[in-house]
Design goal:
alpha/beta, Aspartate Aminotransferase, domain 1, Aspartate Aminotransferase, domain 2, 2 domains, 7-stranded mixed β-sheet, 4-stranded antiparallel β-sheet, globular, binds glutamine, aminotransferase, PyrdxlP-dep_Trfase, transaminase activity, transferase, Aminotransferase_I/II_large
């Protein structure tokens, strides 16, 4: 096999899920909800089956491009639908960077960014967030120092997996200014865009529309991660080429699911689904954070996403899942080297019962 298949190293997320299942562990590892998706999504997909069963255009099912254009105050031509945000990121890296180019990524990072850059032949420059007792901080001077004449793009994730950080307006403006000054593209992974616990955050796209590609995910928004419907919203002039590129990966995303998602995105707004979702996640975040604090753990409370990081001294994730039957993702999955000691990611997109059970089990081993 070609040496590039070194990127085929198995991701820890499915590995941990399998282990959790085998051991009967509470799975706070891989980020997928344990509740079913909203009925309006299931009904819309059922209506689409038998009706929209053949290829969709590579750029996306027209009604979905229109629904997304409304969401992002863009034109349908600015939207390309992908098979999950994972494909969106792959296509973007293939399209924006190549050998000799550098990509700036914040660390800790979602695991997919590094193999995507590697497969594009580009080099990654990491900028590590400072971990202070108050949480993860981005040092703008460190970010600017990482930029060289070879830098092509800056890859950002907000709200951020795994830290739960969310970049505020001042930070986004500083990032947009840096991108302008150094003429960089911005890839903004916003799959958790509806999952924030304070004020609605600004979008990088609105601050630097000419250079920002926003990545999104129906799976994350509508609690159906298996549907594999994602999207890219970006400057109109580049989108036909991106649609062209994604022809050679999966050609098009599943048509009935795109049709179902198109309807469901509108229903979600109409029915106040995201407000209810945020409320329910805020409750679960607080339950988990308070429970872990009561066990004496240091907790970094997230501003968004359904992840929380906390320090659990003396364990590695593999012995912990055996001993406590609670599956977590170790910080090492999100760092290239030298991860902070004792740091784990807890997913709280699980039921309150599961979260309470996990806390009971952890109480026996801390
Ligand atoms: N986004 C999910 C997480 O961080 C996992 C996605 C995946 O398994 N590829 O847990």
């Amino acid at each position: 096999l070609h040496p590039r298949t070194q990127a085929a190293k198995e991701s820890i997320f499915p590995k941990m899920s399998q282990l959790a299942q085998r051991l009967g562990a509470v799975n706070l590892g891989q980020g997928f909800p344990s509740n079913p998706p909203p009925p309006f999504l299931l009904e819309a997909v059922r209506r689409a089956l038998g009706r929209y069963d053949q290829y969709a255009p590579p750029a996306g099912f027209p009604a979905l491009r229109e629904a997304l254009a409304e969401e992002f105050a863009a034109e349908p031509e600015s939207v390309v639908v992908t098979s999950g945000a994972t494909e969106a990121l792959y296509v973007l890296l293939q399209s924006l960077a190549g050998p000799g180019d550098e990509v700036v990524v914040l660390e800790p990072f979602f695991d997919v960014y590094l193999p995507d850059a590697f497969l594009a032949g580009a080099e990654v420059r990491l900028v590590r967030l400072d971990l202070t007792p108050e949480g993860f901080r981005l040092d703008m001077t460190a970010l600017e120092r990482a930029i060289t004449p070879r830098t092509r793009l800056l890859l950002l994730n907000t709200p951020m997996n795994p830290t739960g950080r969310l970049f505020g307006e001042a930070e986004l403006k500083a990032i947009a200014r840096l991108a302008q000054k150094h003429d960089l593209f911005l890839v903004s992974d916003e799959v958790y865009d509806e999952l924030y616990f304070g004020e609605r955050p600004r979008r990088l796209r609105d601050l630097a529309p000419e250079r920002t590609f926003t990545v999104g995910s129906a799976g994350k928004r509508l609690e159906a991660t298996g549907y594999r419907v994602g999207w890219i919203v970006g400057p109109k002039e580049f989108m036909p080429r991106l649609a062209g590129m994604r022809q050679w990966t999966s050609f098009s995303a599943p048509t009935p699911l795109q049709a179902g998602v198109a309807e469901a995105l509108r229903a979600a707004r109409r029915e106040g689904f995201y407000e209810a979702l945020r409320e329910s996640y805020r409750k679960r975040r607080d339950l988990l954070a308070q429970g872990l604090r009561a066990l004496g753990l240091r907790v970094y409370v997230p501003e968004g996403t359904y992840f929380l990081m906390a320090e659990l001294p003396g364990w590695d994730a593999f012995s912990l899942v055996e001993a406590a039957r609670v599956a977590l993702i170790p910080a090492s999955a999100f760092y290239r080297e030298d991860p902070p000691k004792d740091l784990f990611r807890f997913a709280f997109c699980k039921s309150e019962e599961e979260l309470s059970l996990a806390l009971e089990r952890l109480a026996l081993v801390v």
